[in-house]
Amino acid sequence: MPRARKPENKGLPLRWRHTHGAYYYQVPPGQEAAWDGKKLFRLGATLSDAYTVWAERLKYVQDAKTVAQLLDRYALEVIPRRP
After folding, report:
1. Distance between CA 12 and CA 5 in Å, rounded?
2. DSSP 3-state of 26
3. pLDDT tens per residue, the chain (83 residues)?
4. How far, in Å, are 16, 41, 50, 77 from residue 28 at the CA level?
5. Distance separating alpha carbons of residues 4 and 41, to the nearest angstrom
6. What predicted TM-score, i.e. pTM, was given to this entire model?
7. Do the strands 40-44 and 22-26 form a parallel or antiparallel pair, or are they unpaired?
8. E-strand spans in 1-83?
9. Of all helices (H) and strands (E), which one includes residue 62?
């Protein structure tokens, strides 16, 4: 069973964490090439900056077939534009 998330990271997407005053993304194994060869990628100092960088790096689904795909697309297209 995995360890519980820290309170400061509970509302963040999976593989995200807030440490040292910035948001970081834990890159999945094998995807380091898309994230400048890093295993831990710094997304930004603010949450809106982090969502913007994350959305630019990920590819989104044009024709979503499941609710999960729709929610992923929402997270990539709408959330980064919110203040």
Report:
1. 10
2. strand
3. 888 888 888 889 889 999 999 999 999 898 888 889 999 999 999 998 998 898 888 765 566 678 887 888 888 778 887 77
4. 11, 11, 17, 22
5. 22
6. 0.71
7. antiparallel
8. 16-19, 22-26, 40-44
9. none
